[in-house]
Amino acid sequence: MRSVAGLAAILAAASVSLYLLSAHLPPGPQPGHPGSAVGGEDRDRQTDMNSTTKSKLKFPSDLDELRELAETLRFYKREHHGYVLLLFCSAYLYKQSFAIPGSSFLNMLAGAIFGPWEGLVLACLLTTTGSTFCFLLAAAFGKQHVVQLFPEKVALLQRKVEENRSSLFFFLLFLRFFPMTPNWFLNITCPVLNIPMPIFFFSVLIGLIPYNFICVRTGSILSEISSLDDIFSWGTLAQLLAIALMALVPGALIRRYSKAHLKVDGMDSNGQGMVRKSR
């Protein structure tokens, strides 16, 4: 009970902090400032966006909400880049630290707000940092609960970790490239499996680069598309092809290595093997 109460207290404090950060907004961009709109129509748009920003600051659950939030924050970032960056980082770490699904939307939001390269760096750093916080929280408060809630799945992972102990880093990379089990489950299970922190940290940092790149680049493209014709332009198609190659090449190399050096029998893609084992 003490561990549950401690985790609940940390969650409550983080929730309150994130709420206060999103509720106390600095003034939005004003007409006449460098980089701000000055036309009558744009001034009306500024007033409308300033008045509705607070109501739009919520985690997106679909692409429409994502594009709306991205437009609002890009507008707001003109004069408050530091605040938008702090708010985004805080929201991302909140989701990752407490194993809340939805990182793909935040990765796309990073690309839409900060661009493909700054967004990619942010996504990689925040994914790794948030996953590490989740690892530490699970180690401090949740080891016994993870085992009690998922005994068969933990046992299967434990067996595979021991079988691949000599190539542990590449085994974890394989799991990140090919999600045999969700990333959030790996984050809370690794402390139970006695995975060393450095190996965990760098396996997340490197293993999720292709996934983060796909999401961030997709978000950047979505923010630039205004009609269906834009989707089928040569430039957009070339970018989508580059995204596909970025995802396929590292995955193919890891899969080839795994066939020769790793033991992953009984673990199918998307966790199907684990599901069958747990039934």
UniProtKB/TrEMBL annotation:
Signal peptide: 1-23
VTT domain segment(s): 100-219
InterPro entries: TM41A/B, VTT_dom
Region (Disordered): 30-55
GO cellular component, one term: membrane
Recorded topology in the membrane: Multi-pass membrane protein
Keyword vocabulary terms for this entry: Membrane, Signal, Transmembrane, Transmembrane helix
Transmembrane helix as UniProt keyword: yes
Transmembrane segments annotated in the record for this chain: 83-108, 120-141, 168-186, 193-211, 231-254
Localization of this protein: Membrane
Keyword set includes Transmembrane helix: yes
Family designation: Belongs to the TMEM41 family.
Record's protein name: Transmembrane protein 41ab
